[in-house]
Amino acid sequence: MENVIFELYVKTKQLVEHLDHSESDELLALIELREDVINQLESGILVSEEQKQLLREIGEFDEVLLTKMHFFKDEASQGLNKINNNRLQKQVYEQAYASESYFIDRRE
């Protein structure tokens, strides 16, 4: 258990140090590692004082990580909105013309 908590601490610290250049996949991997640690802690494993201190230090990075996660969420939301707007504009344009109609342009 000690190795897993230390691994989580190291990966969290590395990610926070390079947060400006991080990708959403890196955050996802960190979240999965955190879930593993939480599941192990919930199973009733005894935790030493050193491990508790590492867990507290990991918790101090939560706000920074959440800010980056919200950035990725907002970025994805904007992308989806753009796709939906483009789809709506395309549908409106395609519905404006009936397939059985003709357009005749006359010169004046």
The major pleated sheet works out as: none
* Shape by Cα distribution: rod-shaped
Range of strand content: under 5%
Rounded to the nearest angstrom, the distance between the terminal CA atoms is: 85 Å
User: Multimeric state of these chains?
Assistant: single chain
SSE order in H/E notation? HHHH
Specify Rg, calculated over alpha carbons: 26 Å
**Low-confidence regions:** none
| Class per helix and strand makeup | mainly alpha
Would you give an account of this structure?
There is one protein chain. The chain has helices at 2-17, 24-42, 49-60, 62-95. It has 108 residues and is an all-alpha fold. The protein has one domain (2-95). It is rod-shaped. May act as an export chaperone for the filament capping protein FliD. This is Flagellar protein FliT. InterPro entries: FliT.
Tags for this model:
0% strand, 4 helices, single chain, 108 residues, mainly alpha, 75% helix
Task: Summarize the helices and strands and which ones pair or pack.
Blueprint: H1 2-17, H2 24-42, H3 49-60, H4 62-95
Helix pairs in contact: 1-2, 1-3
Question: Summary?
Answer:
The chain has 4 helices and no strands. It has helices at 2-17, 24-42, 49-60, 62-95. Helix 1 runs antiparallel to helix 2 (24-42) and helix 1 (2-17) packs parallel to helix 3.
